[in-house]
Protein 1
Amino acid sequence: MELDYKVVFAKRKTLTITVERDRSVVVTAPEGTSLEKVRQVVESRKLWLYEKTRHAQKYNPLPHAPGKELVTGESLLYLGRQYRIELVDDSNHIQFAQKFLVPRSVASKPSLFRTWLMARAEEKILPRVAIHAKNLGVEYKEAKIGDGKYRWGSCTPNDNVIFNWRLIKAPMFVIDYVVVHELAHLIEQNHTPRFWNIVKAQAPTMEKAKMWLQSFGNLLEQDI
């Protein structure tokens, strides 16, 4: 059986293979690598790739909850918990006080709430990147919040780390796991036993975080 995969060439020294959440396979190879060399590496990992792309718990799509509406009584996921929405008249800004106080003028514009969530992601996730990088003894060029479709985080060949803004909906121990996971790639590019030992040492709740993402990751994918 043929295995479909996408090849991306980048300025890096090693070749890596990634299975995305949509089951697609991406091979990132050093510039100048021949397609035949890529094919040989993929062939050598074919059994592992078939196992990964058919992993029911991690990759089978879970039913998505109905889209959320910004109405009083609705609840939204934030830092691992559901918080109630309350529409208010006397404000122009979204506020959080163990519930979401949403101006009625914003209620019909979900994109404004998404902007608010992205700002909270920058505020709460990026400082964790700095802390964990210091603890791991690694340096990155830039850390930023992005809108990746299939990844919670990524570490680029240029040593930038990017995190999906939707992570702000997850508990902090999950955020910490994703942050440490990407920073660990600055030490070990592939998912070797050494890599996982590094991650687990810095994020001891790694297995709990992975299970949370497997169970509830689909809920994070909603825009609000």
Protein 2
Amino acid sequence: MQIREMTLKELYPVYDLVKQLYTELSYDEFEDLVYDMRHMEYKMFGILERGELVCYGGAAVQTSLCHKRHLYVFDLVTDEKHREKGYAKMMLEYLQDYAKTAACEKLVLSFKWQGKNVIQV
């Protein structure tokens, strides 16, 4: 198992996983959005098992009055075939460590739960 930052050359496997979360998102729109988010230092992180991307987290260091300097996790998804194996927990732990090295005070996670947007601090 390997956890690492994904590169722009790996957009196809990232998209294949992300489309499980955002089913209406086309590849072209995904690619445009990823390139648009580069200005905010959006990072793509993946957990790979035997070379297969099984979990993805997209995040950026941000600063706000409410959360001060923090790591904002925009996207977190585990492949349907690999859910209930602890990969999301591993990714969140990795992102917490990344946040500490980036001098962030906290990690903020945005996600959908039962059709509603939720922000967890």
